[in-house]
Amino acid sequence: MHTPTSPSPTTAAKRERRKEARPGELIEAALELFVEKGFAATRVDEVAARAGVSKGTLFLYFSSKEELFKAVVRENIAGRFAEWTLELDAFEGSTDDLLRYCYKVWWERIGNTKASGITKLMLSEAHHFPEITQFYQREVMRPGQALIRRILQRGVDRKEIRPLDMDYAVYLVLAPMMFLMLWKHSMGACVPDALDLDPEKYLAMQADNILHGLYTAAPSPVTPPA
Questions:
Q1: Which residue in 17, 125, 146, 162 has the fewest CB atoms around it within 10 Å?
Q2: pLDDT tens sequence across 131-155
Q3: 3-state secondary structure of 226
């Protein structure tokens, strides 16, 4: 028998499940607020209130706002690189197929989600917060560039694209993604139809532009003099 003040097994189980879910709820609330307000303007008590817990509860899981931000980045972006690496390892199509697939997957999993707002936040506030900037560079920028480098090097090795200066070629692939993230969280957020932009069509055209510029060109025919 249970005393009137003792929780039933069902109630205790619900509380335990709720406790296990709290880090995820806090991360989701933090993501929303970081994207809406920026890093500097977001307060931990706002995050706690949006997640439906006290500020003290938040600090049980995250020791500071910086650690909470790192958890947001790992959950929504950095933690996906292992999955993407496995997909790249298993991919059997051409460089054309691979680049188009990568753009499509990136838009579905990152670009068209709240997580893409983190990039705009970093561009806006990086110079004020060197610790989180170094963290973002280490866990997002460098792995992302390394993944793109692998995609391009795969094309070179298969003789589908010409040899490239990889240190700069990665930015050819990154540039359309950066544009879309800025558009989505600036002009696109305020006036969605301002550019009449279809992100998927835009990425397809950028892939065409990149690939036609990188493919091995056939020798031009020699035109005899008039």
A1: 17
A2: 999 999 999 999 999 999 999 999 9
A3: coil
